[in-house]
Amino acid sequence: MTDAKPIVLVASVSREEGRRIERELARAGWTVLPVDDADQAARHLNGAGPNGALVIDAGLLQMAHDAQWRVFRAGHPELGTVVRSFVAGEQPRRGEDDRTLHVRPDDFGAMCRAVRRLCPA
To answer: Can you give the pTM of this predicted structure?
Structure first.
């Protein structure tokens, strides 16, 4: 087991929105790294420990012509994933597995709670 502090990877379609997410997570005390693609995310994960998280826009996961993020997640089942999507109901909402939570894109409080739930300090 590693003593490395969990990191939060941020993948966003919009660089400006990505910076907003990074600021909010950093204010909440997380080590945050922006990622442009799944290869960069995999490089950042080396030595980061099993309890990191990926905060990602739903659109990146759902791109029919580009499965890189789906392949990345399949290769890192231990990584918690916070999917920013327009979902109804209470936030954060459980996704397709225990390591996936959905939050509304504009609900930074829910996003921070979701990361905390996936990566208890």
So the answer is: 0.88
